[in-house]
Amino acid sequence: MSERGVRSLDTVREVYTPEGVALRLPAAGPVPRALAWLIDSTVRFSLLFLVGMIAALLNRVGMGVYLIAYFVIFWGYPILFEVLWDGQTLGKRAMSLRVISDDGAPVGWLASIVRNLLRTVDFLPFGYATGLVAGFFDPWGRRLGDMVARTMVVHAPATTHAPRVQVEGVFAPVQPLRPQEQAAVIAFADRASQLTQSRREELADIAAPAVGIGGALGALRLQGVANWLLGRQ
What we know:
- This protein has eleven helices and five strands.
- By secondary structure, it is mainly alpha-helical.
- Strand 2 (12-16) and strand 3 form a beta hairpin.
């Protein structure tokens, strides 16, 4: 997801996507992140304890099994969960947190690997002291690993789906629309419920030559044009 514009409001990072959707990314502070880390650490050490009990029964082979399990659990656990489970480990899910790219896109493999490998730097000299100090100087409380990976940890409340804005009218555009313009109008109508009223009016002003009017009425007219393009009656 490419970034159209970014501005910060306190600890909220606001990103405008190319589709005009305003994403408000509420950065998580050190306390919920620390609690999530404690939960994840408990899970990992519990798994290592179980693996250790099994490895003890395997004699020499058990040492190799334990070392492999240690690597997978200690390093693979956060990376696999973040990439495959919508940016959440078990601890982050419990604390309603999520790792995302700083432009609002889902975190990818490379970014997750980088941010987790750099935990060793953030931990120096002890107790995540470096990461904590870095977070105080960053507008969104990011540790060094997040800064390098261009990721951030945000609050992730339960997702609620806004009711879709429905417009019954059908309006033909006042001038022919190129294919990409038609696609943009349809995309606007599809995402209208995710936009603020001011953002809808702003986009309607841009499209005023095609619909004949801007502002609030223009936003409704744009959705009517989308109905016309989609053949709705």
